[in-house]
């Protein structure tokens, strides 16, 4: 069962919403997350995916104004800012149960020490 977002989302953002909705519901945490922020996260993730696609299509370096010299793709700063926003939003939603994540990380560190 998927939940409806608090407002209509574009198809790409809705796919992100549905993916996280399913996982969070399975974890039994649906009532513990901020649904409005999850919608913002989904929209931001869709923008991030579009920026990645644009950079992959045009390259990290693109022709400058005069055409001769290559310059950094102007989408790169937007990509970095969007990625930073995703990381902040993921903590605010929260996308992950921090207590479980910390215990899992502690267990993995213990296993590596064996």
UniProtKB/TrEMBL annotation:
Pfam families: Terminase_4
InterPro entries: Phage_term_ssu_P27
Protein name: Terminase
């Amino acid at each position: 069962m998927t939940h409806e977002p608090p407002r209509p989302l574009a198809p790409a953002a809705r796919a992100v919403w549905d993916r996280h909705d399913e996982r969070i519901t399975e974890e039994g945490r649906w009532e513990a997350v901020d649904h409005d922020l999850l919608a913002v996260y989904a929209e931001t993730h869709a923008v991030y995916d579009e920026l990645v696609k644009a950079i992959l299509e045009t390259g990290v370096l693109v022709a400058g104004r005069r055409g001769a010299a290559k310059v950094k793709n102007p989408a790169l700063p937007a990509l970095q800012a969007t990625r930073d926003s995703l990381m902040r939003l993921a903590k605010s939603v929260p996308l992950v149960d921090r207590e479980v994540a910390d215990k899992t990380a502690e267990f993995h560190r213990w296993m590596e020490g064996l």
